[in-house]
Amino acid sequence: MIFVFYNEPVNKQSPFHSMLLGRDRSFLEDKKNTKGGKYSLGMNTQMSFLKRTMYYLSRKKGKTLILFLLLFTVSAFVLTCFSILYATGEVAANMRSSVGAAFHIRSSAVNISAQGTSETDNEKRPVITEDAVQEIMENDSLKFYNGRNSGYAKGLQFLPGAHHTEDNSMGQVSANHYSALHPHFQEGVLELAEGRHITPNDKNGILLSETLAALNGLSVGDTVSLSPAELAQDGSLFFNARKETGAVVKAEIIGLFKELEPQGNVEYQPTAGLRSNLIFADHALLTGMGEAQVGKYTGGVSFYIQDPLYLDEIVNHVRQTDSIDWDRFFIQKDDFQYEKISSGLQTIQNLIKILLVCVSVVSTAVLVLVLAMRMRGRVHEAGVLISVGVSKKEVLGQFAAEILAMAVLAFVCSFFAAGYVSGKVEAGILDKLQVFQIEEQALQTGLMGNPMPSALLTAPADVTLLIYVCLLAIVLSATCLSALSIIKLKPREILSKMS
């Protein structure tokens, strides 16, 4: 078969024009000759490429749907992976600031005398002064501190322990700036059941166990009178070593706690050693009973920082403090709350990074291949358009406009789809992370069970826009390169490929 091709637009009535129409008349218009009653086929060469784009998309519904689903799937997968990767970083940052970390300055001295009795006399135990604490708190990375003192008190009917007598009926008092920061509450051994926790603003406020309160017929808001005591041991017998009565202090019950874990070896514990008889109080209570001194802490001090990443740096700096006798104190670092969740988050981030790389590479390859095959199947169409006088620039613009229209629609749909999927991931990640929060409200209402600060599991607007721009650049580049391989050919070469 021999083809003759003219450089100028082909005559619409010529046999070559009819031959060029071939199989596809999608872009040709039927015009009726009203005088002769006959039909002639012609091309409106003045039709804009945008109109031809809309005409093609509306007529080729199957191909258009496949192109949309391909772009939607790829963009949704990529955006979801980026969103989850970004969100896990935000979750980790939120957890670091919410969970925080701590270091505890504790006495290295033995608090049991040679006779086996506890040394509750504060003069015999090393102390940390308030001045030393404030010097350490000058570091802006520190959020809270909790100084602790301890003692014993009488004045209630206590649950009987081992070798219980009227003389050794007493309970241990733990004085704290924040009772919520006591290890029993942080480690989930105890939980606030009613009322609120102790804060530095309280004066003579106490927390009792629900069991002890029920035994004495007490509830939140009641007032009790407590007097100091001193636990001592002689063989298997426990007794009160304080001979004088001591000062009597009236304390208000501001909260009740319950035990989440049973106490071990309870049959060997004295009455004062039972966790149910434990009394949490502010420092004013022990000071009023003469069991502690203002501004001095014999039970150690715990410091809480905002970001666990700086724990080692802060601890090394604190060790340079001259106002603390480091021969009698040591520092214990505590970041277990963050460590138990950080490894899981890091694993998720690593998996998402691997998945993101795989999705990006595979998606790019699939897009380029499909678009190249799509353009290869439109050689006939490009030949027809060029033959009837449509410029190569307009043909290329039409192909690019088709991709652009589908990409914009797919991107909009993928944004909402990625948000939905990310929300499901949020529920899967955060709902299983039970952690403590170190913040003002939690220190009053309790740390356990408060929800983590929710991270917005979508990538920021600038990151999302950058992702879409990159995806759009890939599909447009693939389309244009594939189309250029066709429209850069001479008309004779296009006809040869069509035949």
Structure description:
The protein folds into two domains: 17-35 and 46-93 and 342-498, no CATH class; 101-334, no CATH class. Helix 9 (336-376) runs parallel beside helix 13. Residues 1-46, 110-122 and 447-456 have low confidence and may be disordered. A hairpin with a 4-residue loop joins strand 1 (29-33) and strand 2. It has 14 helices and 16 strands. The chain has helices at 15-21, 49-59, 61-99, 130-136, 183-186, 210-216, 283-288, 311-318, 336-376, 379-387, 392-430, 440-445, 461-487, 491-498; strands spanning 29-33, 38-42, 101-107, 128-129, 142-154, 171-176, 190-195, 205-209, 223-229, 231-234, 237-240, 249-259, 279-281, 296-297, 301-305, 329-334. With 499 residues, the protein is α+β, with helices and mostly antiparallel strands. The radius of gyration is 39 Å and the shape is rod-shaped. The chain has a six-stranded mixed β-barrel. A two-stranded antiparallel sheet has the order 1-2.
List keywords for this structure.
single chain; 2 domains; alpha+beta; two-stranded antiparallel ribbon; 18% strand; 44% helix; disordered N terminus
Please summarize what this structure is.
The protein is an alpha+beta fold and 499 residues long. The chain contains 14 helices and 16 strands.
